């Protein structure tokens, strides 16, 4: 049964517990396993990849079977229904249109004081996208990761995804990759895939940035290779928090909670409302909808452990609790969502109004569905074009401009005990009787 809480202190404690969920198994033990996998792949390359794919996925591969072939890519189009292909293409167009608005622009400012400052944005050379498998296939995750990388201008994009039975990759995943412009796909998953992308093997190239969600082993691997490569985030179990008023449809709210819970036994589904009647009706609807749910066992576990309804005194109080939790997904199912939005500070994605279920954001609204979890929305943002780019500062001083600031730079350098820093300015700006500096482009010894 979905729990209903009415006390603020108890609600805060429960929200903290859910935010910090890590599962029952020892993370320390799992991290030791991940370290072993990373080192083995770093030393042994493809041999270690094949070993761990057989050990963990029960799939036996040869080195030339790691990469998905061109014939498999072509065949995937014959295996996907036309209606699904059309949906993938619609989603791709929507996602690309949104992310093209987010491309950071290089800029240069020419100051009156003969100082030029600017910022230059360039894409990484190679990006590795991890697409999870296992319980389900995720063509939407392919689009959400590959399209921003393409829009950013990354020259080489590769995908790693776990093989299924008979070594196959979901045709929908293969089609989505091609629609996003990616054809270099490898059938390898888990920590070993992250290791291959971070260090490179005989078959899989070393990349500069790794993005995409995965299980705890994938997340720990991303954490441990950060610094060798860039990563998007450390994604935890998915979560939705819904703020609903008395007029909200309880069946719709319950469906949205189950839409999150069906992801994973550790997914969290939370409702905050000031209406006790709605709270009871939603709890009942969750139970009713679970009865015939195709993923009932998994979804029930999520609801039992990480499902929660909190009855609060006002919508503003709900916003305060939401900010405490900093949800990955936040639904504002209220009469005036834009007014309530003013009280929201922390959320990965915000869905406004009764006709904006999280599912539209998961698939084709355009904004990215790879979002900060476990409270990370307090400081982090969604994956985007900028994830695949870096920027360089541009600085140019004329001789006259350098002369104006020379004294201040030397004072600061000497205060920090760095005499060569001071000398690097002094030698360029000293007077004609003091040495070899250049003033206004002329050697003071000429």
List key phrases describing it.
446 residues, alpha/beta
Molecular structure report:
The protein is of the alpha/beta class and 446 residues long. The protein has helices spanning 8-19, 27-44, 46-57, 70-79, 82-100, 139-152, 171-179, 190-199, 216-225, 250-261, 276-290, 296-306, 315-325, 337-341, 358-363, 399-415, 419-429; strands spanning 4-5, 107-110, 115-123, 126-130, 156-161, 184-187, 209-211, 230-231, 239-244, 268-273, 307-311, 329-333, 349-352, 389-397, 438-439, 442-443. β15 and β16 (442-443) form a beta hairpin. α5 (82-100) runs parallel beside α6 (139-152). The chain starts with a strand and ends with a strand. 42% of the residues are buried.
User: Portion of residues in helices?
Assistant: 40-55%
Sheet/helix structural class: alpha/beta
Instruction: Enumerate how many helices there are, as a single number.
Output: 17
Unreliable stretches covering 5 or more consecutive residues: 432-446
Tally of extended strands? 16
- Give, in spatial order, the strands making up the sheet with the most strands: 1-11-10-9-12-13
Rg, Cα atoms, Å: 27 Å
What does the overall shape look like? Answer: globular
CA-to-CA gap between the ends?
89 Å
Q: What's the pLDDT, averaged over the residues?
A: 93
- Main sheet attributes: strand count, strand direction, barrel closure: 6 strands, parallel
Strand content: 15-25%
Assembly state of the chains shown = single chain
